[in-house]
């Protein structure tokens, strides 16, 4: 390998496509220096106050250029029907996913869906996620799947299908806050994956299966389960500092901290922190998580003074979804249940752009005519 070829791309950042603009989109904007997230023209805090999940999906689809422009009520009706339709696939899903985790099960579930019908495939995909996740979680607990209720909202129906009892208003509000917040987030790894696949005209289902595979990694949407493992492992307040120092010294990454784009606190962490405080009134687990967060930020600052590492959204995702009674094994899938709306809007947008995404690589291997090599 020639160092001459390699030297100008040898910085790690060159391989992570940092700061490379891969699309123009009105769907969302992440300002990593200001700690600001804009989704479809709204600051995330305002979006959460104004919309439930169905309203946010309708907004994203409208902004992506879907015609006729859907309303929140249209989406509510269509997702309700799509959940009913997805329930018919549950026996096949459970048969195909024996021994697989909930995350792997949802990945398989998405691939069972049909790509028939342009908009129908989008509705089908967004609508199926809560049905599949609830059925997979209940199977883990040795329980039968519960049929959807098309008359209740997406968030409420998910909790109902998961636990077999209706959700409280506070729970529905908290889950909607979560689902709305994470619908879209700039050109993150899974959204980029969805757009690359959509650009080959492979269709919505393929784009979502690929995007979900990208999402489930621990450096993306797979972190919250590890956050809860960390809180459990630390266990008591006396252990916090020693545990953090030991893990950082071993070269471990603290899950729920650091972000490629945010160099300050992720604004979504505050939305979830507020939601979990409203839901739990600041119970002991939430107070413990806050203490661990404070200590972790200090430990990271001491160990990595040149890095700007702050709390990312996965930290409070973990705390919020746990408070909602969502099993630890399902938190990544629940992230996917929301982000599928953003992927869908990006697929619509990418298909309108119509241009294959095909970057270049730089060859640093042996040249056949290089006799010295
Ligand atoms: C999200 C993440 C992948 C972004 O990282 P990135 O921009 O690619 O940064 P890098 O991987 O180049 O890391 C830069 C430095 O910060 C350190 N770092 C980054 N996140 C860290 C973390 N959570 N804990 C400890 N150190 C961390 C790296 O070890 C590296 O240090 P070094 O230069 O001494 O080796 C990273 O912060 C991370 O792994 N976080 C933990 C997982 C997580 O919370 N994921 C959810 C993201 S929303």
Automatic annotation (TrEMBL):
Gene Ontology CC annotations of this record: cytosol
Cited Gene3D superfamilies: Citrate Synthase, domain 1, Cytochrome P450-Terp, domain 2
Record's signal peptide: none
UniProt xrefs under Pfam families: Citrate_synt
Reaction catalysis annotation: oxaloacetate + acetyl-CoA + H2O = citrate + CoA + H(+)
Positions of the catalytic residues: 259, 314
Keywords in alphabetical order: Acyltransferase, Transferase
Pathways per UniProt: Carbohydrate metabolism; tricarboxylic acid cycle; isocitrate from oxaloacetate: step 1/2
GO MF, any single term: citrate synthase activity
Entry annotated with the keyword Transferase: yes
GO-annotated biological processes: carbohydrate metabolic process; tricarboxylic acid cycle
Keyword Repressor part of the UniProt annotation: no
Family: Belongs to the citrate synthase family.
Protein name in the entry: Citrate synthase
Species assigned in the record: Parvibaculum sedimenti
């Amino acid at each position: 390998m020639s160092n001459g070829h390699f030297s100008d791309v040898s910085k790690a950042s060159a391989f992570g496509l940092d700061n490379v603009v891969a699309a123009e989109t009105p769907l969302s904007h992440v300002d990593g220096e200001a700690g600001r997230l804009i989704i479809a023209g709204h600051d995330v805090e305002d979006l959460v106050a104004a919309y439930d999940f169905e309203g946010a999906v309708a907004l994203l689809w409208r902004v992506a250029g879907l015609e006729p422009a859907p309303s929140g009520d249209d989406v509510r009706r269509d997702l309700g029907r799509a959940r009913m339709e997805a329930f018919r696939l549950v026996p096949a899903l459970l048969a195909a996913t024996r021994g697989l985790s909930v995350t792997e099960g949802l990945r398989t579930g998405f691939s069972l869906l049909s790509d028939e019908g342009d908009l129908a495939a989008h509705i089908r995909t967004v609508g199926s996620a809560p049905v599949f996740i609830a059925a997979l979680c209940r199977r883990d607990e040795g329980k039968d799947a519960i049929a959807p209720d098309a008359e209740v909202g997406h968030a409420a129906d998910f909790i109902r299908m998961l636990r077999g009892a209706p959700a409280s208003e506070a729970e529905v509000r908290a889950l909607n806050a979560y689902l709305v917040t994470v619908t879209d987030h700039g050109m993150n790894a899974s959204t980029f994956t969805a757009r690359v696949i959509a650009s080959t005209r492979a269709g919505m289902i393929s784009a979502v299966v690929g995007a979900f595979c990208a999402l489930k990694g621990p450096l993306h949407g797979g972190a919250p389960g590890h956050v809860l493992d960390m809180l459990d492992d630390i266990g008591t307040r006396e252990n916090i500092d020693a545990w953090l120092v030991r893990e950082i010294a071993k070269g471990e990454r603290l899950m729920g901290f650091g972000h490629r784009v945010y160099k300050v606190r992720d604004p979504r962490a505050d939305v979830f922190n507020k939601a979990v405080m409203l839901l739990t009134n600041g119970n002991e687990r939430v107070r413990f998580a806050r203490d661990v967060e404070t200590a972790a930020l200090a430990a990271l600052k001491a160990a990595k003074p040149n890095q700007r590492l702050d709390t990312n959204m996965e930290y409070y995702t973990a705390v919020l979804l746990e408070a909602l009674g969502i099993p630890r094994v399902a938190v990544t899938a629940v992230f996917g249940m929301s982000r599928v709306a953003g992927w869908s809007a990006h697929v619509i947008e990418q298909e309108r752009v119509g241009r294959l995404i095909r970057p270049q690589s730089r060859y640093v291997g042996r040249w056949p005519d290089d006799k010295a090599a």
